[in-house]
């Protein structure tokens, strides 16, 4: 079976599962409320120049939530639901199936960008225009790729960790601050900058805001950084997933929930 | 009174036993609590970025108080969990009746909510450079307790929705908390919203309690603060009445058609 066909079947499986899970729509519920909160605060302070931050941030949060809350739980839920033995018995690499399913969830998360744009336009009369649409499209594509890579890593970490719920509940807001998704990294304390640059969100947020304002200086460096961080996370995620599959086979725990 | 206190005690024991399956005190402190502190800081940093120190303090105070509401409304998940594992009928046949037992199912979140909010109240303002006027700021503690109590009633009432529809508990929780966070005067004053919305938010928990907290910090007259506290208590009592009615109907319908034990 070709790689693309494996991924396509994984996408179809995830669509079928998500249709029966209303909570997978949570991202779409959160984004309009967050946009309203952030825009109201921004406009109440008469800061029209920060409107782009307030509209883009819920989209980035949507991607992170999709990655952390849903994509990250994929392998763990396969175990609970008893799908895991059948999936690893199939003659395809299990990691690829995870990637296809993670990509489906992340794709739904991107709708948060459209939602927050709509809330700004309809609710606040602020139509965000993009000065550099080409760069913006590249930034969104690179960000989605990085989210898929991160989610693949998270799904592997969550399934091997005993503290899955703790990690899942804790990795949101600290990363929103570190990622500079609302308040740019430059406005954070200096000592945080090196840590921020290890989080793909910080590059994505700067790149997206720059594309909106038409400031595309250093866009290639940012895209390369996002892709590199994505590749590292994806490789680590696939390696850890394979290691986990091998361990369950070796220890005879494949069928454990 | 004694049976009720016993139910409270047993509910807390059960709730914390459940929590200990997920958290140790270390992972709660350095995972969950730090996450909540980061949440309040995230919005406070935005306040500082778009405004000044006064904006930052306004946003920070709102986001610290609302942490109590966030945790109290997690009762939605605890109650929906009883539906999922099919134990609602067992709780309903207790000699004390179903209501105190159902209402007690998320009491552990009120303890953690109070702790989180008070820790944030003491730690975040000096850490972010917007200190509060102590010792006056200490009077906010009982108000946060009241906000917590009214938010818990709100959570119990909305749990009625999660107990009736399958798999929607996380949506209900996030919607419940998100509405308060967005429109309840947490980040911007209620007065910025259109008139119908300004009226509607009066039925939400936190709204009046938070205004009372801001009043205390600004040295408002005691009568004004007490009126706001009365409004918050009234709103909370209203939500408890909705919760009681909703659970009564759920149990009586469930007894009639045998659906109370259906796992969802």
UniProtKB/TrEMBL annotation, chain A:
<dbReference type="Pfam" id="PF01061">
    <property type="entry name" value="ABC2_membrane"/>
</dbReference>
<keyword id="KW-0812">Transmembrane</keyword>
<feature type="transmembrane region" description="Helical">
    <location>
        <begin position="219"/>
        <end position="240"/>
    </location>
</feature>
<feature type="transmembrane region" description="Helical">
    <location>
        <begin position="51"/>
        <end position="72"/>
    </location>
</feature>
<dbReference type="GO" id="GO:0140359">
    <property type="term" value="F:ABC-type transporter activity"/>
</dbReference>
<keyword id="KW-0472">Membrane</keyword>
<dbReference type="InterPro" id="IPR052902">
    <property type="entry name" value="ABC-2_transporter"/>
</dbReference>
<protein>
    <submittedName>
        <fullName>ABC transporter permease</fullName>
    </submittedName>
</protein>
<feature type="transmembrane region" description="Helical">
    <location>
        <begin position="134"/>
        <end position="161"/>
    </location>
</feature>
<feature type="domain" description="ABC-2 type transporter transmembrane">
    <location>
        <begin position="15"/>
        <end position="211"/>
    </location>
</feature>
<feature type="transmembrane region" description="Helical">
    <location>
        <begin position="173"/>
        <end position="192"/>
    </location>
</feature>
<dbReference type="InterPro" id="IPR013525">
    <property type="entry name" value="ABC2_TM"/>
</dbReference>
<feature type="transmembrane region" description="Helical">
    <location>
        <begin position="25"/>
        <end position="45"/>
    </location>
</feature>
<feature type="transmembrane region" description="Helical">
    <location>
        <begin position="84"/>
        <end position="114"/>
    </location>
</feature>
<keyword id="KW-1133">Transmembrane helix</keyword>
<dbReference type="GO" id="GO:0016020">
    <property type="term" value="C:membrane"/>
</dbReference>
From TrEMBL, chain B:
<feature type="transmembrane region" description="Helical">
    <location>
        <begin position="170"/>
        <end position="190"/>
    </location>
</feature>
<keyword id="KW-0472">Membrane</keyword>
<keyword id="KW-0812">Transmembrane</keyword>
<keyword id="KW-1133">Transmembrane helix</keyword>
<dbReference type="InterPro" id="IPR051784">
    <property type="entry name" value="Nod_factor_ABC_transporter"/>
</dbReference>
<feature type="transmembrane region" description="Helical">
    <location>
        <begin position="138"/>
        <end position="163"/>
    </location>
</feature>
<feature type="transmembrane region" description="Helical">
    <location>
        <begin position="225"/>
        <end position="246"/>
    </location>
</feature>
<protein>
    <submittedName>
        <fullName>ABC transporter permease</fullName>
    </submittedName>
</protein>
<feature type="transmembrane region" description="Helical">
    <location>
        <begin position="58"/>
        <end position="79"/>
    </location>
</feature>
């Amino acid at each position: 079976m070709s790689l693309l066909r494996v991924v396509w079947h994984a996408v179809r499986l995830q669509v079928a599962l998500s249709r029966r899970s209303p909570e997978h729509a949570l991202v779409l519920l959160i984004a309009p409320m967050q946009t309203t909160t952030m825009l109201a605060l921004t406009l109440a302070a008469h800061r029209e120049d920060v409107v782009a931050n307030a509209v883009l941030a819920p989209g980035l949060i949507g991607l992170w939530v999709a990655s952390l809350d849903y994509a990250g739980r994929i392998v763990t839920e396969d175990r609970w639901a008893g799908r895991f033995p059948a999936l690893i018995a199939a003659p395809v690499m299990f990691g690829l199936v995870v990637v296809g399913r993670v990509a489906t969830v992340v794709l739904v998360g991107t709708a948060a960008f459209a939602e927050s744009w709509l809330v700004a336009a309809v609710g606040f009369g602020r139509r965000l225009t993009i000065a550099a649409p080409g760069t913006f499209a590249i930034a969104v594509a690179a960000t989605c790729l990085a989210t898929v890579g991160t989610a693949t890593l998270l799904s592997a970490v969550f399934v091997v960790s005993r503290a899955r719920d703790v990690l899942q509940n804790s990795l949101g807001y600290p990363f929103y601050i570190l990622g500079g998704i609302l308040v740019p990294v430059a406005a954070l304390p200096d000592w945080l900058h090196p840590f921020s640059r290890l989080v793909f969100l910080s590059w994505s947020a700067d790149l997206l805001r720059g594309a909106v304002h038409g400031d595309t200086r250093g866009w290639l460096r940012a895209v390369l950084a996002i892709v590199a961080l994505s590749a590292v996370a994806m490789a680590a995620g696939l390696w850890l997933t394979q290691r986990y599959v091998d361990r369950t086979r070796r220890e005879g725990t494949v069928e454990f929930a | 009174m004694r049976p009720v206190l016993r139910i409270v005690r047993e509910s807390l024991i059960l709730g914390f036993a459940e929590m200990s399956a997920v958290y140790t005190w270390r992972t709660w402190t350095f995972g969950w609590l730090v996450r909540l502190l980061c949440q309040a800081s995230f919005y406070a940093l935005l306040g500082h970025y778009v405004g000044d120190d006064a904006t930052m303090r306004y946003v920070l105070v709102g986001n610290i108080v609302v942490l109590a509401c966030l945790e109290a409304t997690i009762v939605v998940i605890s109650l929906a969990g009883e539906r999922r594992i099919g134990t609602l009928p067992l709780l309903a046949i207790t000699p004390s009746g179903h209501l105190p037992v159902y209402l007690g199912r998320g009491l552990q979140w009120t303890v953690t909510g109070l702790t989180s909010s008070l820790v944030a109240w003491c730690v975040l303002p000096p850490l972010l450079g917007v200190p509060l006027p102590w010792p006056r700021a200490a009077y906010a503690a009982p108000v946060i307790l009241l906000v917590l109590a009214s938010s818990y009633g709100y959570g119990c009432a909305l749990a009625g929705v999660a107990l009736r529809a399958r798999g929607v508990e996380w949506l209900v929780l996030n919607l419940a908390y998100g509405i308060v966070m967005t429109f309840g005067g947490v980040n911007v004053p209620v007065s910025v919203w259109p008139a119908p919305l300004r009226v509607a938010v009066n039925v939400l928990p936190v709204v009046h309690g938070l205004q009372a907290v801001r009043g205390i910090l600004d040295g408002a007259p005691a009568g004004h603060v007490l009126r706001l506290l009365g409004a918050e208590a009234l709103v909370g009592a209203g939500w408890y009445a909705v919760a009681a009615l909703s659970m009564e109907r759920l149990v009586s319908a469930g007894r009639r058609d045998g659906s109370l034990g259906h796992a969802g």
